[in-house]
Amino acid sequence: MFLFNIFTPSKIDNEPVPITLSKYLGKWYEIARFDHSFERDMQKVTAEYKLLPNGNIQVINAGYRDGKFKETIGKAKTTDTSGLLRVSFFLNFYSDYRVLMIDKDYNYVLVGGNSPKYLWILSRTPQLDEATLQKIIDVAEEKGYDTDKLIFVEQ
Question: Which has the closest alpha carbon to 146: 3, 41, 11, 16?
């Protein structure tokens, strides 16, 4: 008989929730993330979304690595599914950006990708209170994400 870890679901629920893009635009602080080579060792990370005249969205990710300021400018485009953006930081290679949960007042958000390897917790402020953070983590766990992998970002 094989025993399976009941806390590791076979798939995640990464269905995006609807958003109002105009409310989503602006600056977000990264509270936590899964580890990725493109953000490894980054602290004081922010993401800013600006609507461009052509309807696309400019994405400015910024933070510090080894005390040095780093900034990456990308682009995003909306899709027919509200809460699902396609984001690119390299030529025309786009990846899913899925809003998995958002506060009714757009104060914090849980974002994932098209696989369980990508997860971010973002906030309009550099810190979240413990109860709010735990609420977001609980939602991520319910959706099948391994929240033990979260790295909490120094702001």
Answer: 11
Angle at Cα 121 formed by Cα 57 and Cα 28, nearest 5°?
Answer: 45
* pLDDT reported for residue 149: 96
**Domains of the chain, residue spans:** 21-152
Q: What is the CA radius of gyration of the chain?
A: 16
H or E element that contains 137: helix 130-142
Q: At which residue do the structure tokens 């413990």 appear?
A: 130
Model confidence at 8: pLDDT above 70: no
Residue 139: pLDDT above 50? yes
Nearest residue to 38 (alpha-carbon basis) of 104, 107, 120, 114:
120
Residue 10 CA: distances (Å) to CA of 39, 118, 130, 149 = 26, 16, 29, 17
CATH topology assigned to domain 21-152: Lipocalin (2.40.128)
Query: What are the Cα distances from residue 136, in Å, to 38, 75, 131?
Result: 24, 26, 9
pLDDT digits (tens, 9 = 90+) for 40-78: 999 999 999 999 999 899 999 999 999 999 999 999 999
SS3 at position 120: strand
Residue 5 pLDDT level (bands cut at 50, 70, 90): very low
